Amino acid sequence: MALPTAGTGAEQDQFWPLPKFYFSVDIGDFTDLPFQEVSGLDVETEVIEYRHGNSPNHSPIKMPGLMKYGDVTLKKGVFADDNQFFDWISKISLNTYERLTVVIRLLDETATPRMTWTLTNAFPQKVTPTDMNSQSSEAGIETMVLTHEGMTSEVA
């Protein structure tokens, strides 16, 4: 891992962190979808605690358990004649929905993917249309929450 070193700003150009505002999202066959925000790329390990009865320690042993992945939230603007979120979730009927691969890429200034997260067997869990307020002059934003069965992360 490259760490910043002392010196002038010109010498440190390679050590600037990637900005988080330049990214692309692919869902199934749909590529480079225009989302405003992506959040929830969480992964954690459940903890298994165990203590046998004759242990001299008065605390349990902690071991790693199953991996647990967070739900991913996607937000995008509301556009006329665009009902993609509702079309996707309305295709779910019992367990007959085609699960999709979702690829999220964090891009550098040349649009080259530098970090890539791939969600496996994803499907929409929740769709929330925009809130409406007659006193507001903000763009309408709708939200879709995806659940999935696993995630990989790659660094370019």
TrEMBL record:
Pfam families tied to this protein: Phage_T4_gp19 (PF06841)
InterPro entries tied to this protein: CHP02241 (IPR011747), Phage_T4_Gp19 (IPR010667)
UniProt-recorded name of the protein: Phage tail protein
GO MF annotations in UniProt: structural molecule activity
